[in-house]
Design brief:
Elements lengths: L40 H22 L3 H24 L5 H26 L6 H24 L7 E3 L3 H17 L9 H18 L3 E3 L12 H16 L1 H21 L12
Antiparallel strand pairs: 1-2
Length: 275
């Protein structure tokens, strides 16, 4: 009677003669070379919050709640500023966290602002409208990719181009301010044109070589005089009077500060990532 091999004992021909103990006596990894690996919880929770805010803002824009959608993107900015610092402070940096952060940033600061602006105003421009939204979205993706590949070769004191969270704040901040003050695209024809210009401006500025101060040299752990705390309290009080307007003025000041530095002669050497 012919005998058939036990299916539970069939081996890959390339591994049939291999030492089951593995090379150098070390145990052989499971079939396929995969090993169980965990992820750091704390920093990735903040990154998940960024992704959630981006998705939530898109949903709210589709429901016509544009102010809520814009605020969600600004909350994502706060969370995005915390995840990296938490990872460094707790020594929990990882390649997974870096890749996850980029994907979350693309949703929250690339796709979400573009879709909010398009649904809110740019769709009235037809093809020109979605082209303007896509210019912003594509620029955000290019900005994130360039940052990831050039992170070790550029001056850490300055960003090369407007950071994508700031670009998102420029675009969604306009929606937030105009909605807060009662201006609607269907009632103010000029608002659609302004939104298109702002979207293209933010996109072009993100992929430019214009320098923007990174604030990475600020030592947040050093002692400060008492008046600094009082100044912070005063600043918070001013923001509380009209959050949308005050915060948007601050972010627009930052978005224009790079061009002021560029006009004063400060340059960042263009570095193209290797393919």
């Amino acid at each position: 009677m012919a005998s058939f091999p036990d299916p539970d004992r069939v081996q890959d021909p390339d591994l049939a003669d291999a030492d089951p103990a593995g090379e150098n006596g070390h145990p052989r990894p499971p079939l396929g070379g995969l090993r169980r690996r965990g992820i750091y919880l704390l920093p990735n929770l903040f990154t998940t919050g960024v992704l959630f805010c981006g998705f939530y803002s898109i949903v709210q824009a589709m429901n016509g709640l544009y102010e809520t959608a814009a605020i969600a993107v600004w909350i994502a900015m706060v969370l995005d500023g915390m995840d990296g610092r938490v990872a460094r402070w707790t020594q929990t940096q990882s390649d997974f966290g870096a890749q996850y952060d980029s994907i979350a940033d693309m949703v929250a600061f690339g796709a979400a602002p573009a879709l909010i602006a398009y649904i809110w105003a740019l769709q009235d421009y037809g093809k020109l409208g979605w082209i303007g939204a896509f210019v912003y979205c594509a620029a955000a993706g290019i900005r994130l990719a360039r940052f990831n590949t050039n992170i070790g070769v550029v001056d850490k004191r300055f960003f090369q181009g407007l950071p994508s969270p700031s670009g998102a704040a420029v675009l969604t901040g306009l929606v937030w301010v105009m909605t807060d003050f009662g201006f609607l695209p269907e009632e103010s024809v000029w608002l659609t044109g302004v939104t298109w210009v702002v979207a293209v401006f933010a996109g072009v500025t993100m992929v430019s070589n214009v320098p923007f101060y990174s604030f990475k040299e600020v030592n947040w752990k050093r002692r400060v005089p008492l008046w600094v705390i009082l100044a912070a309290v005063l600043a918070l009080s001013i923001v509380a009077t009209r959050p949308s307007l005050v915060l948007y003025l601050l972010v627009m000041t930052y978005a224009l500060s790079g061009y002021v530095m560029w006009a004063m002669g400060h340059r960042i050497k263009s570095v193209l990532p290797e393919e």
